[in-house]
């Protein structure tokens, strides 16, 4: 059970959060202009890294805000959290 | 019982309060403070079980949680009985009943023991190798194996005991109340830290508590006396919480730990009543100090498993703490100094010690000198090569070790004894450290794995960190604690510590015998009956990874996770394979550290609290009317309202007919409701629904279909425009919270530029839905001043109204195809409004109907239910709802996916109607559809999603998804069932009132 | 006539803890992102919605709880007669939502407000709530949204050992009986 530092509310138990998969996958602005392959790239393709990954999380049972997290998927260490629209603080 | 095995000078046993208990049906006596194991030993009972594979007699071997043999069944009531408990951990209470496990018909005469005589034929993985082939025989084999193996009986009735969970947050958590743990707790508490100290025993102090030996002194008093004073001083700290009888079960990342507190297991049957039995503590600690101590190792030699073979330090605890002699003629067998403490204790208590057999050449430490001074005989450089006795050890055979330790030399001598204490050195308890993700390092000097690196805020101190000498324990613990808690000083700086120090060390993982290995039984894992031979066999057969050897031989796979002899298994593997132990690594120690009961894991989430239930504001009315309820997500929804012993079918047919003939009333309060405000609200709806919203007039309602980005139908519902920038959206009952969080996600991440705010108001409103040709008349009586004319209040529009001066919103919308209204009122008035509508509708036989009738009525009209007729693989085109996809909108969620190569395939499964040739035959939902009745292999082309007998059409109707269904209208298909094949015809999805005349009736 | 129905009627007393439901308190959800929103609310109510997390602001009549960077819960201390009083909601709606400063939504019956009083209230909460109350306990006016027995709740630390807990109405009976079951063992 992680202890997650919500960028709005502070440190909370993982049970208050839900995970939302890989971060920084931007919905294309003009989907109609994409080929099937390009659209599939957005829709289906995810990296699923072993190691440091950028992820989306939602403080679902708290402030309901989405934010991003830098997490190492092999040891679960959370290196940083940052708000939506911000650049990852470390890579 | 004739022997007096109890000495009288124990301070920890209350010999004035006698406790009676039963073991294997026999009434025995012990004292308050005893464990079941100590009481049995006091009654001269060593034999307590049979081993798993060979059914060899086994006795109590330890005094703690690492016990592999004394595994007993507790209780005689089939609902209360608990298998696999350790006699060494069960505190004696009045009325306790326990019995041996793993033996039939009795521990003294066990049929399975025949395996023992055949044992040369039961090598490692015998079961796997022999019984796995032919596969078809496995069921038969399994029956016999299970019958003769058996690890206790499960209770047959629900657990009557109460369990609880609790969260705990602290600055410092200390695990283990031995000498290092006490030092840590006091230091942390003195520095105003919110501190918690856990210990799995009933009192603090660990083994130092009964270390009354001249060789171990602190400030010129016995180490035990010094520690007692320290423990007493802990009481003065309000910021220190001490929990005894509390076992740390799991150590997860982020210093999240689970501990099981035993609250009543030690109480008498009467005292236990109505109390919480065990509590699971969910602990979040800023810092963790592990002070879990070390476990004594056994020695691995031929027939080392006989009852009466006990760990040397356990013999010491039984005599010094419980006042129980484990035997009257005891031999000790060791490779280290600690056994001499046992020898001195036994000697002081007047127990005859035959000799100490020590594999080392010599030892010059003060404790050994002290023992020799007392006249205790030591066989240096000797080993035990065999033991005798079946149900109890009767003698040992010893020989001199060769210089290299690999063999034995000289003549064999025999020593009569009734107990053999063994000690193979000490293993730090690093289980919790590794559970938390910590990495271990190997120390060659004494062959131990020690905590190395850790990512968490934690330290290990004392003997779990490899400090075994009293002065090292205190000095190093103190130093580590100060560093860890950032302190400059502590109470433990200038203590005067005198202790014996071990100078000579020697270790042999598998002790040699005068017989070849194949003819001996040196047990490694006592619970799973695996021997050193098995491990060597596994290596010969090519297993190299320690994890594979473990699974192949089952070494370390019992309920004790092989705590006792994992190290020996590793040592033997390393030696045989010719690698260093440090390179071999260890097996993984998984939580829980000791087994947890299911009750503890579940806590109070049983019965009423098994799952969360949500109730509508009108719930009580449905209960009064004896409605049957259906679970929809967490909601309890009225399913149908049986009258006079009606069956479900009868009730639903009656309700469905009444709703179309006159009037029906439905509690629709569970529908999700989202209040939408903001200047971009219309644009937002354009993006989330497939159809267009900008031109919806204020006061009008519109049905919307929501997709996922993959183009599949996600949710649906009616949204009403309350004002220029104000909408109220309804969602399905089950989809409400997911839809809200999905929409919030888009607003926060993809479209932050939109000025839109969402607020859930699902629970704020009760929704009363009235439908049927008389619904208008009924509503006019409930809200007389509302103009209900079609011109003023047409289908798909909404009005604000006041009922008894309470604001409400009335929508004229329909999910049944009938003329109908939904009234939304603040929940506190929901029940009263419902009753008012019911009263007003009495004249028209207004009939309450439940979810089943609602489903039937909408199916007659071919309206879909998302999640029933769709399953995340169905597009709106598949539903033949092309009309709801806006052609003009540039984009909406899922639009692009609607013309991917896969979604435009013609042979996708599409929604169709089905009628059965026999109108009385009702299809089963989920039934498969085939195009040819007798073709094999059968190709399944679709399945039934909704199916009912329609009382209004007097025939069976169904909805189904079918490959290429759109083009197959009018064709015959088949639904094969277990005993028959049902003939069906594909139809349109709308069965009733295709012209929608009833909406305005 | 329409009658008012509360999902929970009775108050219960346990050792060091009293739980009861406070009925007919008006509750309004406020959302807005910019400074004008804050200023307007401040002007209308004479209370500034807190912009720092996990706290509340208020006076003798009203409380504003921080729920998120753009969301607040407003609730009254006094009971309100719904049959004759919707003025607060209407006024705020006109001043905020109508002029596109944010949203104003009546959630009076969306939430049920349960009052917990006594020395053992935090003992009760800790039997089903993963939140760390160690600091919260001593800070008057603190607010948290968390889970209690897996159910979403908002907790307002009104006074020392005197809490208002908000739970969605449909969950309230279940949570109420769970709280009563928990309180037995404290
Ligand atoms: Zn948050």
Uncertain residue segments of chain A: none
Strand content of chain A: 35-45%
Please tally the helical runs of chain B, counting DSSP H or I stretches of 4 or more residues.
24
The span between the termini of chain B is 94 Å
Gyration radius of chain A (Cα, Å) is: 14 Å
- Write down the Rg of chain B: 38 Å
Instruction: Determine and state the CATH class of the largest domain in chain B.
Output: Alpha Beta
Please count the helical segments of chain A. Answer: 1
Helical/strand content category of chain A? mainly beta
Helix content of chain B: 10-25%
CATH architectural name of chain A: 2-Layer Sandwich
Task: Kindly give the count of domains of chain A.
Answer: 1
CATH class (first level) name of chain A: Alpha Beta
Give me the CATH fold name of the largest domain in chain B. Answer: FAD/NAD(P)-binding domain
- The helix/strand class of chain B is alpha+beta
* CATH homologous superfamily placement of the largest domain in chain B: FAD/NAD(P)-binding domain
* pLDDT averaged residue by residue of chain A: 95
Fraction of residues in β-strands of chain B: 25-35%
What CATH architecture of the largest domain in chain B would you give? 3-Layer(bba) Sandwich
What report would you give on this structure?
The complex is a heterotrimer of chains A (91), B (1001) and C (186). In chain A, a hairpin with a 7-residue loop joins strand 4 and strand 5. Chain A has a single domain, classed as 2-Layer Sandwich (Folate-binding fold). Chain A contains 1 helix and 6 strands. Chain A is globular. Chain A is mostly beta strands. Chain B folds into 7 domains: 104 residues, 2Fe-2S iron-sulphur cluster binding domain, sarcosine oxidase, alpha subunit, N-terminal domain (Ubiquitin-like (UB roll), Roll), CATH 3.10.20; 204 residues, 3-Layer(bba) Sandwich (FAD/NAD(P)-binding domain); 104 residues, 3-Layer(bba) Sandwich (FAD/NAD(P)-binding domain), CATH 3.50.50; 103 residues, Arc Repressor Mutant, subunit A, CATH 1.10.10.1100; 54 residues, no CATH class; 191 residues, Gyrase A, domain 2, CATH 3.30.1360; 140 residues, Gyrase A, domain 2, CATH 3.30.1360.120. In chain B, strand 30 and strand 31 form a beta hairpin. Chain B is elongated, with a radius of gyration of 38 Å. With 1001 residues, chain B is an alpha+beta fold. Chain B is built from 24 helices and 50 strands. With 186 residues, chain C is of the alpha+beta class. Chain C has 2 domains: 86 residues, Probable tRNA modification gtpase trme, domain 1 (Gyrase A, domain 2, 2-Layer Sandwich); 80 residues, Heterotetrameric sarcosine oxidase (Alpha-Beta Plaits). In chain C, strands 1-2-8-11-10-9 form a 6-stranded antiparallel sheet. In chain C, strands 4-5-6-3-7 form a 5-stranded antiparallel sheet. Chain C starts with 11 loop residues before the first strand and ends with a helix. The model of chain C has no long low-confidence stretch (mean pLDDT 94). The chains are: A mainly beta (91), B alpha+beta (1001), C alpha+beta (186). The structure holds zinc ion (ZN). The site of zinc ion (ZN) has 7 residues of chain A, from loops.
């Amino acid at each position: 059970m992680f202890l997650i530092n919500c960028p709005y509310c502070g440190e909370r138990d993982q049970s208050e959060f839900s995970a939302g998969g890989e971060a920084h996958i931007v919905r294309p602005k003009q989907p109609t202009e994409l080929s099937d392959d390009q659209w599939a790239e957005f829709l289906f393709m995810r990296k699923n890294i072993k190691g440091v990954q950028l992820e989306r999380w939602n403080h679902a049972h708290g402030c309901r805000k989405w934010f991003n997290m830098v997490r190492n998927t092999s040891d679960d260490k959370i290196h940083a959290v940052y708000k939506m629209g911000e650049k990852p603080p470390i890579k | 019982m004739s022997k007096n095995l109890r000495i009288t000078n124990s301070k920890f046993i209350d010999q004035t309060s006698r406790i009676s208990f039963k073991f294997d049906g026999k009434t025995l006596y012990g004292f308050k403070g005893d464990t079941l194991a100590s009481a049995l030993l006091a009654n001269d009972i060593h034999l307590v079980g049979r081993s798993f594979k060979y059914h060899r007699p086994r006795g109590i071997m330890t005094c703690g949680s690492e016990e592999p043999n004394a595994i007993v069944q507790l209780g005689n009531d089939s609902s209360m009985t608990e298998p696999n408990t350790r006699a060494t951990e069960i505190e004696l209470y009045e009325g306790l009943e326990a019995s041996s496990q793993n033996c039939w018909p009795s521990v003294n005469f066990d049929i399975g023991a025949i395996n023992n005589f055949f044992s040369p034929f039961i090598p490692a993985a015998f079961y796997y190798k022999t019984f796995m082939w032919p596969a078809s025989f496995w069921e038969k084999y399994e029956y016999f194996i299970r019958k003769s193996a058996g690890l206790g009986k499960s209770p047959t009735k629900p657990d009557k005991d109460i369990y609880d969970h609790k969260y705990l947050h602290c600055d410092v958590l200390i695990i283990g109340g031995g000498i290092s743990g006490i030092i840590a707790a006091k230091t942390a508490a003195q520095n105003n830290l919110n501190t918690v100290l856990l210990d799995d025993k009933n009192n603090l102090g660990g083994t130092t508590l009964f270390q009354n030996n001249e060789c171990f002194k602190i400030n010129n008093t016995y180490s035990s006396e010094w520690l007692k004073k320290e423990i007493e001083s802990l009481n003065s700290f309000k910021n220190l919480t001490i929990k005894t009888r509390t076992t740390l079960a799991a150590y997860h990342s982020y210093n999240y730990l689970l501990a099981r507190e035993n609250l009543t297991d030690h109480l008498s049957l009467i005292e236990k009543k109505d109390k919480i039995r065990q509590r699971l503590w969910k602990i979040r600690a800023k810092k963790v100090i592990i002070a879990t101590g070390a476990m004594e190792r056994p020695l691995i030699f031929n027939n080392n498993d006989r009852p009466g073979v006990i760990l040397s330090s356990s013999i010491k605890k039984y005599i010094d703490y419980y006042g129980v002699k484990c035997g009257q003629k005891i031999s000790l067998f060791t490779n280290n100094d600690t056994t001499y403490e046992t020898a001195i204790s036994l000697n002081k208590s007047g127990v005859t010690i035959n000799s100490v057999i020590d594999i080392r050449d010599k030892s010059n430490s003060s404790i050994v000198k002290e023992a020799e001074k007392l006249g205790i005989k030591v066989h240096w450089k000797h080993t035990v090569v065999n033991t005798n006795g079946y149900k109890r050890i009767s003698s040992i055979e010893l020989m001199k070790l060769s210089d290299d330790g690999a063999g034995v030399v000289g003549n064999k001598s025999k020593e009569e004894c009734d107990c053999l204490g063994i000690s193979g050195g000490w293993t730090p308890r690093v289980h919790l450290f590794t559970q938390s993700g910590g990495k271990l390092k190997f120390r060659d000097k004494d062959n131990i794995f020690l905590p190395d690196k850790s990512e968490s805020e934690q330290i290990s101190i004392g003997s779990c960190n490899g400090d075994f000498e009293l002065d090292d324990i205190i000095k190093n613990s103190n130093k580590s604690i100060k560093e860890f808690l950032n302190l400059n000083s502590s109470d433990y700086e200038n203590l005067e510590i005198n202790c014996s120090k071990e100078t000579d060390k020697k270790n042999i993982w598998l002790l040699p015998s005068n017989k070849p290995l194949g003819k001996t039984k040196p047990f490694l894992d006592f619970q799973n009956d695996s021997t050193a031979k098995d491990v060597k066999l596994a290596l010969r057969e090519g297993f190299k990874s320690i994890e594979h050897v473990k699974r192949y031989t089952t070494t370390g796979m019992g309920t004790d996770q092989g705590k006792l002899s994992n190290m020996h298994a590793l040592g033997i593997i390393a030696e045989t394979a010719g690698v260093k132990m440090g390179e071999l690594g260890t097996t993984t120690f998984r939580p829980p550290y000791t087994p947890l009961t299911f009750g503890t894991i579940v806590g109070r989430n049983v019965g009423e609290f098994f799952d969360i239930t949500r109730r509508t504001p009108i719930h009580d009315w449905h209960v009064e009317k004896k409605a049957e309820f259906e679970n929809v997500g967490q909601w309890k929804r009225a399913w149908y309202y049986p009258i006079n012993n009606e069956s479900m079918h009868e009730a639903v047919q009656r309700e469905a007919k009444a709703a179309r003939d006159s009037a029906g009333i439905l509690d629709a309060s569970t529908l999700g409701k989202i209040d939408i405000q903001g200047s971009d609200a219309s644009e937002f709806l354009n993006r989330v629904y497939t159809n267009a919203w900008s031109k919806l007039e204020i006061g009008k309602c519109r049905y919307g279909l929501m997709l996922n980005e993959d183009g599949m139908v996600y949710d649906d519902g009616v949204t009403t425009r309350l004002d220029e920038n104000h909408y109220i959206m309804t969602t399905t009952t089950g989809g409400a919270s997911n839809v809200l969080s999905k929409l919030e996600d888009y607003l926060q991440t993809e479209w932050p530029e939109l000025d839109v705010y969402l607020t859930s108001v699902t629970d704020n409103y009760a929704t009363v839905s009235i439908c049927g040709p008389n619904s208008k008349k009924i509503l006019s009586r409930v809200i007389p001043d509302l103009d209900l004319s079609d011109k003023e209040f047409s289908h798909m529009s909404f009005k604000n109204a006041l009922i008894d001066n309470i604001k409400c919103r009335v929508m004229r919308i329909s999910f049944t195809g009938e003329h109908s209204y939904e009234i939304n009122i603040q929940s506190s008035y929901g029940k009263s409004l419902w009753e008012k509508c019911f009263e007003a509708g009495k004249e028209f036989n207004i009939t309450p109907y439940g979810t089943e009738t609602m489903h039937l009525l909408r199916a007659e009209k071919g309206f879909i239910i998302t999640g029933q007729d769709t399953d995340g693989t169905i597009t709106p085109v598949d539903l033949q709802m092309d009309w709801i996809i806006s052609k003009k909108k540039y984009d909406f969620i899922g639009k692009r996916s609607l013309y991917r190569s896969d979604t435009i395939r013609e042979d996708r499964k599409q929604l169709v109607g089905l009628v059965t040739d026999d109108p009385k035959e009702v299809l089963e939902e989920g039934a498969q559809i085939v195009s040819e009745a007798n073709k094999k292999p059968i190709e399944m082309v679709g399945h039934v999603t909704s199916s009912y007998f329609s009382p209004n059409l007097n025939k069976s109707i169904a909805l189904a998804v079918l490959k290429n269904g759109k083009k197959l209208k009018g064709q015959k298909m088949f639904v094969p069932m277990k005993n028959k094949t049902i003939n069906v015809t594909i139809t349109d999805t709308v069965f009733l009132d295709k012209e929608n005349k009833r909406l305005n009736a | 006539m329409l009658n008012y129905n509360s999902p929970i009627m009775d108050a219960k007393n346990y050792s060091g803890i009293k739980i009861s439901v406070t009925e007919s308190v008006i509750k309004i959800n406020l959302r807005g992102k910019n400074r004008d929103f804050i200023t307007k609310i401040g002007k209308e109510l004479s209370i500034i919605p807190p912009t720092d997390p996990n706290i509340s602001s208020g006076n003798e009549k009203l409380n504003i709880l921080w729920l998120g960077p753009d969301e607040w819960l407003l609730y009254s201390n006094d009971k309100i007669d719904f049959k004759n009083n919707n003025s607060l909601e209407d006024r705020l709606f006109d001043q905020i939502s109508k002029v596109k400063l944010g949203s104003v939504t009546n959630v009076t019956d969306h939430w049920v407000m349960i009052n917990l009083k006594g020395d053992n209230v935090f003992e009760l909460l800790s039997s089903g709530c993963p939140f760390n109350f160690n600091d919260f306990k001593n800070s008057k006016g603190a607010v948290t949204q968390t889970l209690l027995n897996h159910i979403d709740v908002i907790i307002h630390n009104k006074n020392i050992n005197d809490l208002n807990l908000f739970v969605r109405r449909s969950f309230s009976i279940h949570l109420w009986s769970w709280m009563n079951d928990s309180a037995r063992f404290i």
